[in-house]
Amino acid sequence: MYKLDAAITGWINSLSGNSLLDHALITISNLGVPLLILAVAAQWWTGPERTKTRHILIAAGLTFLIGLGINQVILLFDQRIRPYDAGVTRLLIERSSDPSFPSDHATATFAIAAAFLIHNLPKRGLFFLVAAILVSLSRVYLGTHYISDVMGGALTAIFAAALVKALYKPATGVDRFLTSIL
Question: Which residues are catalytic?
Fold first, then answer.
């Protein structure tokens, strides 16, 4: 499996070298997560079904945090080296100090998408899904992650979304309190 993972990762990274595309994907990688967080937060005051929307926004935030927390647990057991350290890719951005698997960028962005999709907001969920794919692929393109790292991050996010969906129910006392803020 590693050979296939390295081959796909190397192929995606080999597409780099076009200064315009490189710059665009560096920008997507750097700004993708903060912009998606802003896009989620900005919805707090919009929409006709404000309570339902706010529940989903809180669920997205919880999914984001739980997904990243799960990643930290995984890192206790798996210290995968980065593809640029293994000679698979050429790095286009600064080196990272943490292990490669799973990708926090992928987890963060797919967590938002998964939360919207699992809570039945398909149009918004699809927007966030496209953004998550772009951010995740940018990480492979830039040489900082294997393709399996971003797939692992996506799976962590999906698991976290399912966990939040099962545990954080609408119209509970906690939900009524949180959705009534501001």
Answer: 105, 145
